[in-house]
C-alpha cells in the first residue's frame, strides 16, 4: 500500500524528553523528508502486503531541541503498538549555569548483516536537550509502528514502530507484515503445445520453499464447503515456511542496544503459506524471553488482525504474555487465495524486568517454529550530575483505564554527601534555574497524587533498567511534602544515600496538553556551593490526523481468459472460456496473491488503490502456451500477454485478458 494510503490511516503517539535524541527506522515503507529544520518520517507497519495494523502509521519529528511523538487519544495503547520509556534531563549549577548537554551522533545508514534478504536503513540524529520515543497506533498500525511501549532515555529513540501492524505505544516499535502469493510463470494466453508447464517458486535464506500447482480447479470452489471453518484450536507450524529472516538492533545494528533510549530489536521474517492451509488453522510467532512488545501497559496490548492491502483479514492473533507468543488463526482468506507469501517485521523492546542491568545475551525469535538468533549487548544510561546533585527518571507505567502515569526517580544515585537536599516534582516541564514553566502538561500534581519516598541505603546497587515493582527491600520514609500549584516539594535534608521516589499522578485524557512530568534535585556541597539537576518525561497524546472520516474508494482489475482456437490473439465467437487458469496479482513491493478463473473464464482482484501500480500475470495449464498479444487496437478483446503492469487511474480496469 502506498504512502497516500498510509497518510490517510495514520495514528500517532509521541513522547517528548529533554535530552539528546536518536531515531531509527528501517524499511522500504519508510518515507523521510525534510520540513524546515525538522526531518519528518512516516512509517506504515504491515505484514508484507498484509497490513498487520491496518495501515497505522507513526510520525516522528526530529528537530533541534525537542522531538514529538503522537498517537490517537481514542486508541491510546489499545493494540499492538508498544510504549517506551524516555528519560531526559539537564543539570545546572551556580558556578556554571550551563545546561549539561549530550554528545552529537552522526547520521548513518547501514544494512542488516544477519541473513540474506535484509535491506534496512538507520537514521541517527541528536539534539542537546531533548529525547523522545515515537509510537504507532493500533487502530491502524507500533513502541513502533507491532508496534510496543518503550521509554527512551537521553539520546536515542527508535521505533517504530513500529510493527506492519496497528500498534499503540509511546515509543516507536513497528511491526511490519505483508501477504503475497508467489509468482509462478511468465505466460498468459492459452494455446495447445506439446510441453507441460509446472509453476515453481523458491527462495533461499533460512530455508527454501517450493510451491507447485497440481490441480487447476479453483481453490475457492474446491474449498467452498470449508470457508466458514471455526478455529481448530491446534497449531500447525508446518503450514508456514520461513524463507528468510534476520535480527538487528535498530540504531546502528552494532550488537549494542540501549533500552532507555527506546531502541528496538527488529525481527524480520519472510514466509510462505502452504496451499493446504484452511480457515481455522493456526501458526505462531514467538518473541525472545528477554524482549517485550511494549514496555508498559501490556494489559492493553494485543496483536491486530493481519489484513491484506484490500482490507481482507488473513489471520487474527492472540498474545500469550506467559510464553510471549502470538498465535495466529487463518480466516477463509487462505481458502480463496493460493501461493500466499508474507513477511513479518516485528519490533520489540528489551524487557527491563528480565534484563535489569547491562549484560550480553542471545536474543532468539521464531516464526512457525523456525528460530533466528543474535547476540546483543544491553547498555543503560548514566544519571544527570552537577555538583552534589544527581537524578534520573523514567515513566514506569501508564494506565489508560485509570488515566494515571507512574514515574520513578533515582535521587542522588551518585550517593554524594548532599546538604539541604530538596526533591521537587512538577506536572509540567520546568526550567530548573529560573523555575519557569517550559511546557504545560495534562497531568496534575496535587495532594491526591501518590508520592512515595524510599531510602535505598548506602552503596546500594539499583537496577539500571529503573524497572522497580517491589519496594519492600527499601525503607519507606515520610518526609515533609509541601504542595504548590501543580507541584510538590519533598525535603530530604542532609543525605548520602540514594532515594527511590515513585510519583503517580492523574492526567486528563480530554486535555489538549500532553502528559508531561519533571523532577529536580537541588543541594549544597560542604563548601556551600549550590547545584540543581532536572529530569523530565513527556507523553503526547493527539487525536487522529488523517484529515477525513470517509471510506477511501478502491478499484478492481480483471477480466477474461479464453482458448484462442485460431491463435490470432483476439476473442472471437465460438472460442471457449478457459476455466481454472492461475492468475497472480503482484503489488509494488513484490508481494503477491493468486486466484483461478471461474467457469466463465473470468477473474477479478478488488480493493486496489488509485495511482498504485500492480502487475497481473497468467500461468497457463500444462500443455498450453499463450498466443499472440496486443493484436489490433481494441484492448477489450485482445490478449495482453503473460504479464501486464497496470496503474489505477481512478477507475476499474476490466480489460486485462489472456488467450
TrEMBL record:
Domain called Fibrinogen-binding: residue spans: 388-525
Keywords: Cell projection, Cell wall, Cilium, Flagellum, Peptidoglycan-anchor, Secreted, Signal
Ranges annotated as biased composition (Low complexity): 157-188, 197-211
Residue ranges annotated for the SD-repeat containing protein B domain, each copy included: 556-659
GO biological process: cell adhesion
Membrane topology annotation: Peptidoglycan-anchor
SDR-like Ig domain location: 261-358
Similarity annotation: Belongs to the serine-aspartate repeat-containing protein (SDr) family.
Protein name listed in UniProt: Putative flagellar protein FliS
Organism: Streptococcus pseudoporcinus
Amino acid at each position: 500500500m502506498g504512502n497516500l494510503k498510509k497518510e490517510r490511516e495514520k495514528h500517532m503517539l509521541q513522547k517528548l524528553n529533554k535530552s539528546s535524541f536518536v531515531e531509527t527506522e528501517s524499511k522500504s515503507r519508510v518515507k523521510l523528508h525534510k520540513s524546515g529544520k525538522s526531518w519528518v518520517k512516516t512509517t506504515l507497519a504491515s505484514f508484507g502486503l498484509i497490513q498487520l495494523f491496518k495501515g497505522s502509521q507513526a510520525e516522528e519529528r526530529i528537530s533541534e531541541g525537542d522531538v514529538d511523538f503522537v498517537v490517537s487519544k481514542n486508541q491510546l495503547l489499545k493494540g499492538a503498538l508498544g510504549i517506551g520509556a524516555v528519560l531526559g534531563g539537564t543539570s545546572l549549577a551556580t558556578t556554571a549555569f550551563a545546561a549539561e548537554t549530550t554528545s552529537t551522533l552522526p547520521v548513518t545508514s547501514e544494512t542488516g548483516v544477519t541473513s540474506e534478504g535484509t535491506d534496512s536503513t538507520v537514521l541517527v540524529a541528536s539534539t542537546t536537550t531533548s529525547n523522545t520515543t515515537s509510537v504507532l497506533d493500533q487502530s491502524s498500525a507500533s513502541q513502533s509502528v507491532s508496534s510496543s511501549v518503550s521509554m527512551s532515555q537521553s539520546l536515542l529513540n527508535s521505533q517504530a514502530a513500529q510493527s506492519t501492524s496497528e500498534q499503540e505505544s509511546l515509543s516507536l516499535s513497528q511491526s511490519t507484515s505483508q501477504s503475497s502469493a508467489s509468482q509462478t510463470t511468465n505466460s498468459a494466453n492459452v494455446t495447445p503445445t506439446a510441453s507441460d508447464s509446472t509453476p515453481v517458486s523458491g527462495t533461499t535464506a533460512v530455508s527454501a520453499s517450493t510451491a507447485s500447482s497440481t490441480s487447476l480447479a479453483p481453490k475457492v470452489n474446491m474449498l467452498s464447503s470449508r470457508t466458514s471453518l471455526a478455529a481448530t484450536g491446534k497449531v500447525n507450524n508446518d503450514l508456514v515456511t520461513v524463507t528468510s529472516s534476520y535480527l538487528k538492533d535498530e540504531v546502528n545494528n552494532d550488537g549494542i542496544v540501549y533500552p532507555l533510549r527506546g531502541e528496538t530489536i527488529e525481527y524480520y521474517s519472510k514466509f510462505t503459506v502452504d496451499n493446504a492451509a484452511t480457515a481455522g488453522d493456526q501458526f505462531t510467532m514467538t518473541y525472545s524471553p528477554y524482549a517485550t512488545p511494549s514496555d508498559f501497559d501490556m494489559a492493553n496490548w494485543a496483536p491486530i488482525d493481519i489484513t491484506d492491502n484490500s482490507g481482507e483479514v488473513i489471520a487474527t492473533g492472540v498474545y500469550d504474555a506467559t510464553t510471549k507468543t502470538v498465535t495466529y488463526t487463518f480466516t477463509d482468506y487462505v481458502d480463496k487465495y493460493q501461493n500466499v507469501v508474507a513477511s513479518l517485521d516485528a519490533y520489540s523492546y528489551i524487557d527491563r524486568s528480565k534484563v535489569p542491568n547491562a549484560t550480553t545475551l542471545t536474543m532468539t525469535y521464531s516464526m512457525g517454529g523456525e528460530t533466528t538468533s543474535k547476540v546483543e549487548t544491553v547498555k543503560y544510561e548514566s544519571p544527570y550530575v552537577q555538583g552534589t546533585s544527581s537524578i534520573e527518571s523514567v515513566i514506569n507505567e501508564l494506565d489508560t483505564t485509570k488515566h494515571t502515569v507512574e514515574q520513578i526517580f533515582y535521587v542522588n544515585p551518585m550517593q554524594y554527601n548532599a546538604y539541604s537536599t530538596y526533591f521537587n516534582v512538577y506536572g509540567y516541564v520546568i526550567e530548573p534555574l529560573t523555575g519557569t514553566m517550559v511546557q504545560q502538561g495534562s497531568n496534575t500534581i496535587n495532594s491526591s497524587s501518590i508520592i512515595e519516598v524510599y531510602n535505598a541505603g548506602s552503596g546500594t546497587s539499583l537496577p539500571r533498567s529503573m524497572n522497580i515493582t517491589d519496594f519492600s527491600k527499601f525503607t519507606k520514609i515520610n518526609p515533609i511534602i509541601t504542595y504548590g500549584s501543580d507541584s510538590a516539594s519533598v525535603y530530604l535534608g542532609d543525605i548520602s544515600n540514594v532515594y527511590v521516589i515513585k510519583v503517580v499522578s492523574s492526567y486528563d485524557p480530554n486535555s489538549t496538553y500532553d502528559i508531561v512530568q519533571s523532577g529536580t534535585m537541588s543541594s549544597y556541597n560542604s563548601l556551600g556551593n549550590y547545584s540543581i539537576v532536572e529530569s523530565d518525561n513527556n507523553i503526547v497524546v493527539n487525536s487522529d490526523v488523517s484529515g477525513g472520516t470517509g471510506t477511501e474508494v478502491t478499484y478492481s482489475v480483471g477480466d477474461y481468459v479464453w482458448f484462442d482456437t485460431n491463435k490470432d490473439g483476439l476473442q472471437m465467437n465460438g472460442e471457449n472460456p478457459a476455466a481454472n487458469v492461475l492468475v497472480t496479482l503482484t503489488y509494488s513491493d513484490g508481494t503477491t496473491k493468486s486466484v483461478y478463473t471461474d467457469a466463465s473464464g473470468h477473474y477479478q482482484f478488488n480493493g486496489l488503490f488509485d495511482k498504485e501500480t500492480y502487475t497481473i500475470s497468467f500461468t497457463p495449464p500444462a500443455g498450453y502456451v499463450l498466443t499472440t498479444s496486443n493484436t489490433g487496437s481494441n484492448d477489450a478483446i485482445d490478449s495482453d500477454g503473460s504479464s501486464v503492469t497496470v496503474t489505477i487511474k481512478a477507475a476499474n480496469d476490466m480489460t486485462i485478458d489472456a488467450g
